[in-house]
Amino acid sequence: MGLFTFAKTVTATLLKKPATLNYPARPAKKSDLSRGHLTIDVDSCKWCGLCSRRCPTQAISVDRKGKTWEIDRFRCVVCNSCVEICPAHCLTMENTYLPPVTEGVKELFRPAVVETEPETEKAEG
After folding, report:
1. 35, 95 in Cβ contact below 8 A?
2. Which of 12, 56, 57, 87 is 20 to 30 A removed from 106 (C-alpha atoms)?
3. Where are the domains of the chain?
4. Does Iron show up as a keyword for this record (predicted)?
5. 33-109 under CATH 3.30.70.3270, yes or no
6. DSSP E strand stretches across 2-100
């Protein structure tokens, strides 16, 4: 009796559509409840470090002197605490998917440096 039940289950499973999507070949449907992933406008950052102190998993680290902002996406649980506390409003949640990764790599962000030529005064002669 058990063999017949097993064969019936296997046959029914083979005739059904797959239960999962072939992501990322076919994009997944986005839910309104999904927060997506954290993004930063590093040029607006005030380097206060409130986001790293509020992060429950210590996924964010801010270096005031070096002006760097770093996130470990494998540690981030997308809780939105950092976005809520940021006084500069440079952190946002984007409701898009990132490409899948296989190893935990920290992302480092630095502000864009605009180099200007030093001004020289003309000597009056």
Report:
1. yes
2. 87
3. 33-109
4. yes
5. yes
6. 37-40, 60-63, 68-72, 91-94
